[in-house]
Amino acid sequence: FLKGKTAIVTGSTSGIGLAYAKALAAEGAAVMINGFGDAQAIETERANLAAISGTEARYSAADMSKPEEIAAMVHDCAESLGGPDIVISNAGIQYVSPVDEFPVEKWDAIIAINLSSTFHLMRAAIPHMKTRKWGRIISTASAHSLVASPNKSAYVAAKHGIAGLTKTVALETAPHGITVNCISPGYVWTPLVENQIPDTMRTRGLTREQVVNDVLLAAQPTKQFVQPEQVAALALFLCRDEAAQITGANLSMDGGWTAA
Ligand code: NAD
Question: Which PROSITE patterns did the record assign (predicted)?
Fold first, then answer.
């Protein structure tokens, strides 16, 4: 149902972002992927997305901490693929430390990549959407857009910021056929999460099962990870005409975490 539409997904060389890109491509969208990683692996993914969609797929190496590179990425999409009709702001990083020891440069990087990049992306993309009177803007927020955990001051501040930015821009763009929403997953099974398990087992003297159930899924009542494909399926629904009246929403997908 997305044939003829174009989408930018930031941070889509891995994890949730890659699942969004695949889901959009499977519906026929021309996708521009973005993020860091091995050049060969990225090229393989890009070619795979082109094959899945039956149309073009491109890669942008834009650094989400650099406003001018974000604007250039949107411009490049408009020139080469058209649009963008759909933008998914997903790139994100994490750093864990008590606030009084939090490195200033880590704070600045998290605010830039996890929050300000979404502003720059919206700012550059919305004029293109207004001309076509249709647009879908989706951000990956987090359960941490609604609740806090200790030692994650920058991440929690950035994700709460995404929820506020989403509401504000939804109000501004509502007359133009553009919807703006964010999705707030709990723990999602990505390489990022999986790779933490051996370290935590070692440093805390726990079994794999204990790390998963008592540490990672401690706050998630279903005791199951969210799957990247489940997050992508919700984003896909937000792109449908049936979702035209969903705007300004922060949609939780967290196994009940924030219900507690
Ligand atoms: P991931 O590490 O697998 O993917 C992050 C992506 O962002 C990668 O493609 C990486 O290259 C890219 N990236 C990082 N810094 C960048 C920069 N400066 N410029 C451009 N790209 C950059 O992580 P993920 O788990 O898939 O996370 C994706 C999003 O989902 C993040 O915003 C994260 O906060 C959010 N999230 C993740 C979870 C989880 O449990 N995994 C839960 C809630 C929210």
Answer: ADH_SHORT
